[in-house]
Amino acid sequence: MEILIFGHPALRERAKPVENINGKLKETIDKMAETMYKAKGIGLAANQVGILKRFFIMDVSQREGKNKLEVYINPEIVSAEGEMLYEEGCLSIPGYFAPVKRYAKIYVKAYDINETLIEKELEGISAIVFQHEYDHLDGILFIDRLSHIKRQLFKKWWRKHYKK
Description:
Layout: H1 23-38, E1 43-45, E2 55-58, E3 70-81, E4 84-90, E5 93-102, E6 105-111, E7 117-123, H2 125-137, H3 148-161
Antiparallel strand pairs: 1-2, 2-3, 3-6, 4-5, 6-7
C-alpha cells in the first residue's frame, strides 16, 4: 500500500460514507496500519492511500513504543472547545512541519471495525490527530490551516524539496 503525496488529486476529494463494515474493510485497515507503522506515522486516513471512504486509523501510543490502534469509521465531531497550537506534520507531505491551531477537546462519534458505536471525548494529542485525519476525509490538508504567508512559504519549500 502506498501513501499518496501532496499534489495527488485524491487528497483533495471529499470521502463518501462507508456503507459496509466487512472483512474486506478489515483487511484494508490491517494494510493501512502496516503502512502507517512502517512510515512511523501516528495517523492515516483512507484518502491518503487512494480510498475515498470515510475512515481513518490512528495510534498516538506509538510515540511511546506501544501499539494501540484506533479505527474510526464514518467519524463525526459532535462538539469542540478550547484551542491549542501543535506542530503538525503529515505522511502525505514528508519532511514539512508547521504549528496548527486546533480544538483542545473534542467529543466524537464513529464506528469501530466491529460496527460498535464509539462515543468519546478526546483531548491533547489524541484530539489533534483525530482532527488532522478527519480533515483528510474532507480533502483538507494541515497546510490549508496555515496563514496565507505560511502557505506561500510552504509552496516555496515544496518546490525546492520536491521538484518534478
